[in-house]
Design brief:
single chain, 405 residues, mainly alpha, Farnesyl Diphosphate Synthase, 2 domains, 3-stranded antiparallel β-sheet, two-stranded antiparallel sheet, 14 helices, 59% helix, disordered C terminus
């Protein structure tokens, strides 16, 4: 699932995390209901900001409906967002996904760029654009702005050369997101918010485009693909400065927006966007403060070292000492997991002896890791797959031991 925002439920808290899930699931189901099952792959973290802005400005209580079980929710039901907000988010997400598919087809990159898949992928992208245009008209939103931005993007990329402005390349993305954000004010009945939200959308689109360029830079060079930073000869310090200025501009523009309940919207568009900037530049091998490579030239066109700033500050170890330290750490982790597993087995056996067994009610334990999932439970449990499936959605993605009854 693409997008620069990576909201964490532990940082958001219970209430805001539930609102985030309602918007995300509502967007996914709106894509399914209006455009078919295939369109659900267009679900993205950034698109739900559109529906969230509509809800945050609306004076009416949030519109919700109960959705059925979903594997991504652990086969649990949930209250999901409905209404014009999620439909607008679906239109924007579908247009962005169509542009992304067309970009991969043109670059012959990924699955959709394969020789036998390209024609079908292009037809799907064109169908999404047509469907999004029809749905946008029912919402009073001119999707022609999004289509024109996609067409103008290709022309600007072809005309870009070293020395040209980087912002001229990001302009179509800025215009498309600004139009979507501004229309949320009209749907919510707050026309006074349109101007500041257009500014928020313009700057958010700029950040998203720049972070995508920084993240894909090395891969684009290795594959001979077009990249805005390489094409315009823009140093990474300038790209980082543009991102930081845009985030500050978003915060200032949001101060002029009148919300009914803007807690989640402000959190995502300020803190989470700042985290996205720091995370992207850090993973690309650049320090979070200055945007320069640790100990190297600030130009992104030069080779990037694999050593991070944290590792550069680490004291040097004797030859062979680092390998020994890693081996000891791995052995310690294995011992901790083994101890936890033994404790879990003992506790499960004690609990089973202390109570009568009932269907799907016995206590079992699961040792889950990122690469494997192994069930250790009473043999009688294996008589029904339903009993095992009922517990699977609760496992952790990290190596841990959990109990359920």
């Amino acid at each position: 699932m693409f997008g620069i925002i990576r909201a964490c439920r532990h940082r958001l808290g219970g209430e805001l995390a539930a609102a985030w899930t309602a918007q995300l699931c509502g967007l996914c189901l709106a894509l399914r209901d209006d455009y078919g099952q295939t369109a659900r792959i267009a679900t993205n973290h950034d698109g739900l900001v559109v529906s969230l802005l509509v809800e945050a400005q609306s004076a009416a209580p949030p519109s919700r409906r109960t959705a059925g079980p979903c594997p991504l929710r652990g086969m649990r039901r949930a209250d999901v967002a409905t209404g014009e907000g999620v439909r607008l988010a679906a239109v924007v997400s579908l247009a962005l996904a169509a542009a992304r598919v067309r970009d991969h087809v043109d670059d012959r990159d990924g699955v959709v760029g394969a020789l036998g898949v390209r024609p079908a992928a292009r037809r799907i992208a064109e169908r999404w654009v047509r469907q999004g245009t029809d749905a946008g008209h029912t919402l009073g939103f001119d999707t022609g702005v999004l289509v024109a931005a996609m067409d103008r993007q290709s022309e600007l990329e072809a005309a870009a050369d070293p020395g040209s402005s980087l912002l001229s390349v990001t302009e179509p993305t800025e215009a498309a997101v600004a139009a979507a954000f501004g229309h949320t004010a009209l749907l919510a009945g707050r026309p006074a918010n349109e101007a500041p939200l257009r500014e928020v959308g313009q700057l958010f689109g700029r950040v998203a485009h720049l972070l995508d360029a920084v993240e894909d830079y090395r891969d684009d060079l290795a594959r001979g693909k077009w990249n805005p930073l390489a094409a315009t000869g823009t140093p990474v310090t300038e790209a980082r400065a543009l991102c930081d200025d845009a985030v500050l501009g978003i915060e200032l523009a949001l101060a002029d927006v009148e919300f009914t309940d803007g807690r989640l919207a402000r959190r995502l568009l300020t803190r989470e966007v700042r985290r996205a900037v720091s995370r992207t530049f850090s993973r690309a091998g650049y320090t979070a403060q200055s945007g320069t490579t640790a100990g190297r030239s600030p130009s992104i066109s030069g080779p990037a070292p694999a050593t991070s700033a944290r590792k550069a500050r680490r004291p040097a170890l004797r030859p062979g000492a680092e390998a020994a330290a890693r081996t000891a750490a791995a052995a310690s982790c294995v011992a901790m997991v083994a101890t936890a597993a033994a404790t879990a087995t003992t506790a499960a056996a004690t609990a089973l002896n202390a109570r009568k067994a009932r269907p799907y009610g016995r206590m079992g334990w699961c040792l889950a890791s990122s690469s494997s999932l192994r069930w250790l439970a009473p043999s009688s449990w294996g008589r029904s797959w339903a009993g095992a499936i009922a517990w699977v959605p609760r496992f952790s993605s990290s190596c841990s031991v959990r109990f359920w009854v």
